[in-house]
User: What shape does this take?
Amino acid sequence: MSEKKKLSENQMFISVLASVVSIIIGLIFGFILLMILNPSKAGIGINAMMTTGFSSLDQFGKVLYQSAPLMLCGLSVGFAFKTGMFNIGATGQYTIGAFCALVGGIAWQLPWWVCLILSFIGGAIWGIFPGLFKALFNVNEVITSIMFNWIGMFLVNLLLANMPIMLASAWGASNSDRTAALSQANPGAIIPKGGLDRLFGNSSWINISVFIAIIVAIICWFILEKTTFGYELKACGFNKEGSRYAGINANRNIVLSMIIAGALSGLGGGLYYLAGTIQYVLEKKTLAMGFNGIPVALLANSNPIGTIFSSLFISYIQVGGSAMQPNFSSESTDIIIAVIIYLAAFALLMRGLIVRIMKGGKSRETAVTENAANVTADKADSMDKDDNKEAKA
Amino acid sequence: MASDYVIEMLHITKEFPGIKANDDITLQLKRGELHALLGENGAGKSTLMSVLFGLYQAEQGTIKKDGKEVQIKDPNDANRLGIGMVHQHFKLVECFSVLDNIILGVEDTKHGFLQKDEARRKVMALSEKYGLRVDPDALVSDISVGMQQRVEILKMLYRDNEILIFDEPTAVLTPQEIDELMEIMRGFKNEGKSILFITHKLAEIMAVADRCTVLRKGKYMGTVDISGTTQEELSKMMVGRDVRLTADKKPCKTGNVILSVKDLVIPSRTHNNNAVRGVSFDVRQGEIVCVAGIEGNGQTELIYGITGLEKVISGNITLKGKDITHAPIRERSMDGMSHIPEDRHKHGLILDYTLEQNLVLQRYRESAFQNKGVIKAGEVRKYADRLIEEFDIRSGQGPVTIARSMSGGNQQKAIIAREIDKQPELLVAVQPTRGLDVGAIEYIHEQLIKERDNGKAVLLVSLELDEVMNLSDRILVMYEGEIVGEFDPKQTTVEELGLYMAGAKRQDGKEAKAS
Assistant: This one.
C-alpha cells in the first residue's frame, strides 16, 4: 500500500513539474522570437513580459481585473466540455451578455447587480440555440455556435446603432461608434471596487469581479463534482449511450449544459463591460475574449478550480505583453503570447516525457506497460487484500 | 531431426513492469501440425503470440525457424519467415473491398498504378482451393463476420504464409461456421501448413488439434497429445483446479408471468427491414428463458426494445401486468427491470468514471445516495465497498479505480453486481460471459441461476450454444427477426438448434428457406 501512495504523490509532483517545465519552454521560445523580431530590445521585452504583472500593485490589479472575464469564458468552455460539447460560441454568448448588461445599465438605469443578472440571462439564451439544435436535430454544436457568434455580434451592432440612447454621443461625448461611458451614463451600474482600489495602490482596474468569478468557479466545481446533476452531465459527456442506458435524459442535459455554459460567458461579458473602464466598440469582428476561454479551459483540463489559475496565468502574460508595446508591435506580442499558451498546453505531453525520463529510457514500452499494469492490477489488488487482512489480525 | 519443428519458441520470458507475462515458456510447433494454445484470459497466450509475430521482444529465450535461430523484430520479419496471424479483432479496412484488403501492403504496381488482375486471379484460385467463399468486390463493411474472417485467412495465404496463427477464431462464429472453419483448418494441415490455434474452448481443441500447450498465469503447464487426454484434464491444467463444465440446477419452479411480449416489431439500425418481426413470448418467475440465434438475427434489437433503448413500431411489452411499451428507460428500471447489456463498454459502464460511480449508475437518484441533489459520497463509498466485497470485484485501487483500467471480467462483475443488487423482478442478460475466462463464466452462471432460484425472471440472450443448453429452462430460437422454435433444453440437441438458427427448419409450419 505504502508504495502505491508514493506513486500517486509522485504523480501530483509530476503534473506540477510538467506545467512549470512547459511554461519555461514557452518563455524560451518567446524569447527566441523576440530575438528575431528586435534583438536589441529582446531582453527588455521578455523582462516586461515576465515581471510587469508583479511590478506594481496597479498592474497586479489589472491582472486580476482581466482574469475575471477570462475565467468565466474558461468555465463556460470547460463546463460544456464536461458534457461532451465543444462550446466555441463563448464569444457570441459573451457579446450578448455584455449587451444585456449595458442596456440594463445605460438605457434602463439599473444597478450593477441587476445588470449582471441580465448578462447572465442573455448569455444563457444565446447558449440555448446550439444546445437545442444538437439535442433535437443532432446538428454539430460547433457549426451552430460559430454561426451564432456572428449572429450575436451583428445583432448587437444593429441594435446599438438603432438605440441612440446607448451611444456615447447621447451622453455628452462626440463619438457614436461606441457605447456610453458608464461613469457618465449611470455610475450605479459600475461594479463596486469594494475598497480594493485602496489596497491596490489606487489601481484604476481592480474591482470585485475577480471574486465573483472565483465564487462562480467554486459553484461550478460543486455542481460538477458533488451533485446528481453534475454526475449526469459528466456521464453524458463521457458516454452518451451509457448514460442513456442508465435512464439519463441525455438531450435534456445537453441543452441544460449549453444554457449554463452560455450564462457563464454572458456573465463574463457583463463583468468586463460593467467595470467602467471600457466601452463597447461597434466593430465588425468577434471579440477575442470568448475564444481565449478555450485555452483557459484546456490548460485547466476543464477543471473549474484549475480554471481559476489558468485564467490568472493567461491574464498575467497578457498584461505583460501589453507592457512590451512601444518596443514590439501588438501583433508580435500577440504571437508571443500565443506561443507561450500553446506550449503551456503541452503539459500533458511533457508529463509523459518526464515519466519516461524518470523511469529511464524504456520509452518504447510505455504504452505496453500501461496495459500490463492494468492486467496486474487484479493481482496487485488481491495481494493488497491479503496485506490488509494481516494488518487487521 | 531439428527440422521436425518448423517453429520453436524456447524458454521465452517476457516481462512487463510488475508482471511476468511469459515465464520460461517453450512451444514447439511441428510441420503440418494443428497445435492449440490454451489458457485463461491473462495467461499469456496473446503475449506469446505477439512475441512470435514480432509485436513484442522477449527478454530471454530464442525463436528457431527450421532449427535455425531467428530474430523477429516486427511483423514484417514474421511475414518474411512465413508467419501469418488472424487477430481476434480483425484488422480490415471497412470501406475497402475484399480484394483491396487482401492485397493491402503487398500490391503490385506498374508505373505507380495498381495492377489488380493478377492478384484477383490468385485470390480466386486460393479461395477455390480451400473452400474460402468470398466476394472479392464486396465492401468489408457489408459482409458477415464469418466472411471477414475468411478474408483474413486469405490475406495470410496470399502472402504464402505457411505458419498460420489463429487468435480465438471461433468466438464470433455460428456452430455451422465453426464446423466449416475446422474443415478449412484440416485442409491447411493436409497441405503441410502448420497451425497455431489460440482458444479457451475445450471442445474445439478436442475436435481438431493434434497437440495442445497449456499456459496458466504466464507459466508453462505442459504440452499434451490430444488423443491421450480429456476435456476435464485440460481444464484442470488451465485453471489449476477442478471446474464444473456444466452448471448445477434445481428443477425450475415457475410462478407468475413477469414479462410479456406480444407481436413486437422493432426497426433495424443497419438495414431498412424491421429487425424484429412480430415476436411474442412470456417470461415467468423462477425460470431462465434463453433467446438463441446467430448474431444479427434481431436479438440485439429485441432487447433494445424491451429495455427501452430503441422505440418499437408496434406490439406490446408488459412488465408485471403494466404496459411499458413506450415507458422511458428509467421508469422500466424503477419498475423492476435490470439489464446486463451486450456491450459493456458502450452501455454498461461509464469507463472514465470510477468503480463506485459506476456501481450507483442506476441508483444515484435514490434517497439513500442523494439529498436534494447533492450526492452522499460516504453512502456511495459504503455501498461500493459492500458490493466489491460481496461480488469479489477486483481492481487496482478499490472503489476509486477508473473503470477503464479494470480487466474485462471485473468490469462485467461490476455490472452484474449493480444489476443484481437492485433486486430486480426481471433480469435481462445479454451475452453476459462474452470474452470472459472459464473462472469468470462459472461465477456468472452461478449468479444467474441464483437469481432464478430466488424466483426472479431471467431473460438471457446468448450466442454460445453450450451456455444456452446449460443455463436455460426454455430456449427460443430467433431467425431473421422471428422466433422459429421453442425448445426444452433437455429434449433437444445443439445440432437441432443449429438447424433452426440457420433457418433450415422452423416449428410454426411456415416453409423453411432452402439453405
Observations:
- Residues 1-5, 361-393 of chain A have pLDDT under 50 and may be disordered.
- The longest helix of chain A spans residues 2-37.
- The two ends of chain A are 17 Å apart (CA to CA).
